[in-house]
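During data preparation, a discrete fold description was generated, as reproduced here:
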Amino acid sequence: MDKRNYIVSKLFWIILLAFILSLGFLFKSMYLVYAIYVFLMIFVISDFLNRLWLKIIECNRSVGSLIINEGQEVEVTVFVRNKFWLPVPWVYVEDIIPSGSECIGSNAQFLMLMPDEMVTISYKLRFPRRGYHKIGPLMLETGDFFGLQRRFRTDDKQEYITVLPSVVYIKSFQVSTRRPHGPVRVSHKIYEDPTRIYGIREYVPGDPIKSIHWKVSAKANKLQVKTYEPATVLGATLAIDMFEDNYLPQNREERMELAITTTASIAYLLYLSGEPVGLVTNGLDASDTAKYQRDSETSLARDDLITKLVQEIQPERISPLMVPTKRSPVQLQKILENLARIVPNKIVSMTYLLQITAPHIPRDNALVLIVPQVSDDLASVIENMKARGFIVNVFIIKDDNAYQEAVIKLGKLGIFVFHIQHEQDLFYIAPQRIGV
């Protein structure tokens, strides 16, 4: 019952009672008049008590852990307290849980609260899928003894659980080389490794003093300097495409989740290898519109209140979501938490994402693209980045046609394309030469 219907209903009852009361006076029926007075008194007192009972109830929630893995359980405890000196005859308490979660125990309970009494409600939630899941707010329902009216109220607190994506162990994959194993031959000497001496040459003005080989210089009677092998290219920046229109509608959700699992698995492998890793995506961050505190709302109907609770503003982030590429003990955790919160977008394409983020992507790390397809515009941007010295690997997510097209477009550039159709494909990623 919405507010308009509630007002119409009240007007109807007022007119009806006024008519019956008029009949009582007209026919001088004191019992009928008395009954109407009693009914009005009960109605007014009940309405006052309903409003009072909802106001004097205080609620809090405790969540065992705010960051968990897929399939794990989290314990939730709700505290309900009557902070007034009058008892609350009955109240129905329900904690709103996210769809898709499995509730172990009961998240709802009928209570009778004595003055200053506190009652706890405990249950567990299991989340089978990654995401940024909202728990709450708490919904309260109470009414009078006679069932004349009921009222609903929500609490002002809600919690968000970050469920990290699943990670698949990758057996053999090195983003810094075209071969699954073996040494790396770099084509751009961006950095030199001072621990790996390559040879000796004559001193040239401008060479650093620390590179002079003093013993050889003394024997040759002229300055000689050490030359070093270039440092191998290690680590990668992972770029995942979450542009919604690039995924086919019939299996869009499945492919997006596989893309996130692929990204998380590669990040995990690089982290275990001690290599720097970073993330960039055009996906939206679900935490941008998360409301940890919200206004308490009241209603006369449960359905109307539930409708208000599930309506949330969708994020419209224009700037990309990035985790800078570096080697850090907490780097993997940062990347997994961001992947857990990612939701699709309809604004920023992968082509535009690479164009605006290229200046911020380290060139001495590989660039790994996890995409549903390679369009002509994206292939042109990849070719440009390849010419600027980037080592690029491309992962196509579960689309045979898109994979074959990507092989044709990128094979001539010496870029390896991998086809991930299932999570099991991540166990054995063996780079092979593509194209003719």
The longest strand covers residues 192-202. Residues 55-164 form a domain with the Immunoglobulin-like fold (CATH 2.60.40.10). The chain has four domains: 3-54, 55-164, 192-230, 236-287+302-427.
